[in-house]
Amino acid sequence: MNHEFTAGGIPCDSVSAQDALAVMHNPMQFELLGRVDDILNIGGIKVSAGRLEDRVMEDARIADAGVAYVVDDRGRGAVVLALVPPEGIDIGPLTQEAVKRMALGATPVQVVAVPAIPRTETGKVRRNALSDTVHQSLKASVTTNA
Questions:
Q1: How many structural domains compose the chain?
Q2: What range defines the domain where residue 69 resides?
Q3: pTM of the model
């Protein structure tokens, strides 16, 4: 690998950062957080939804997972974890462990079961479609519980 120093002094090898979000730790070091549409702003802290999903998917009992930030009719936002449980498995026991794996501390996380996580042909989560799916699931559960 042939690294050349750029004018800023950072070694690079054809790094492309289109639509990416990065945090500068110092003039010589940055951390690439991910695609802009993959970043959640939770209490002013930028969190990669993909990283949260990866943590949740470490549990082999979960068939698929997606994280969305949804805003309800009153304008309140919430982090929602959409889980696709394997057939015949109750989602109840999985939820607490899945939320714990997300490691968001005191940030409340709602969990909903969904039949599938909407994905692109390349396997990336379709964030807008997931938000719509989650929003519909939450509305249905409020109607059912009313």
A1: 1
A2: 49-145
A3: 0.73
